Each structure stands twice: as C-alpha cells, then as structure tokens.
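Ops channel
N.P.: pipeline sanity check, posting one input/output pair.
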C-alpha cells in the first residue's frame, strides 16, 4: 500500500471546496489515515517545496500555500499516488481534464486548489513531514476494504 499527502490549498479553503475535494478521494476508495486543519508555516512551506527553491515562482508559491489554513490528508491505497494525481488533474488547471478537481474548479497554475505527492517515496516523506505517527490511524481496517482492494 502506498501513501500520499494531499493538501486542500488556501484557495480551495477560501472557496468552500474542502468537503467536495475530500469527498472525491474518499469515494475513489482511498483510505484516510490522517486528516487535519493547519496553517502551514514558512519553514514547512520551504521544506515541502524545496525542489522548487530555485524557480522564479518559488516566493509566490510559498506566499500562496501559507495564505490561509489548509486541510492535510494522508491517504493510503494501492497505487495511491497515481490514483490521487489523476483525481487532482494536470498542474495547469486550464489544461486539466474535465472531471478532475483542477479541471472542474480551476483556471490558473498559481491557484490550482490541491497538492498530491508525485511518487511513492515522496508520499511517505511528505506524510511524515505533516503528521506525527501518533496523529495517523495507520492500522484501521475498513469493512469495505475487500471490495476496494482485491
Ligand atoms: P504539482 O502540484 O502538479 O505536483 P509541481 O510539483 O510541478 O506541480 O509544482 C508545484 C506547484 O508549483 C504547482 O502546483 C504550482 C506551482 N507551479 C509549478 N510550475 C509553475 C509555473 N511554471 N509557474 C507558476 N507556478 C508553478
Ligand atoms: Mg508536485
């Protein structure tokens, strides 16, 4: 089972889309093992987006992700990273497929509503950056699991 970190970004929070966004991952069958509301600190934002540190958009990216509280979700499932990124849609919302979160609710790259980890390795690292082990319910089994996971 893979883990992925999802962030409902500040624009989605301001627009009242947190429930809608969480619902889509839940309905897909991904298992919620962590969920919280937090205001991302500058320090955590810089760590989370460290790979983009040298990019021209880094400062605006940090300002955006720290501008309002976010909902952080830790999800688990088979192929969770790929599945979640398909549900999220392409980075640039104007080009994201209709039916994806970004394709249904977004237009601009700097207001793309949601984050999802890009590899299984980063999924595990990012979940650990946002949740302590004690904050995760890592071992709960859903009655429906045999009907979601073969
Ligand atoms: P994703 O969020 O789809 O994984 P990413 O990891 O490449 O995309 O980039 C992280 C965020 O940085 C992305 O959600 C929006 C912003 N971003 C990426 N490329 C950008 C660009 N060319 N101009 C402005 N913002 C950009
Ligand atoms: Mg990314």
């Amino acid at each position: 089972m893979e883990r992925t970190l999802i962030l409902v970004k500040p624009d989605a929070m301001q627009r009242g889309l947190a429930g809608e966004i969480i619902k889509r991952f839940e309905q897909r069958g991904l298992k919620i093992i962590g969920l919280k509301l937090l205001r991302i600190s500058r320090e955590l934002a810089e760590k989370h987006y460290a790979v983009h540190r040298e990019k021209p958009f880094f400062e605006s990216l940090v300002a955006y992700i720290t501008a309002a509280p976010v909902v952080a979700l830790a999800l688990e499932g088979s192929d969770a990273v790929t599945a979640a990124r398909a549900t999220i849609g392409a980075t640039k919302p104007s080009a994201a497929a209709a039916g994806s979160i970004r394709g249904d609710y977004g237009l601009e790259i700097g207001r793309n509503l949601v984050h999802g980890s890009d590899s299984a390795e980063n999924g595990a690292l990012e979940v650990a950056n946002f949740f302590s082990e004690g904050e995760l319910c890592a071992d709960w089994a859903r009655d429906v699991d045999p009907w979601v996971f073969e």
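N.P.: looks fine end to end. The mean pLDDT is 98.
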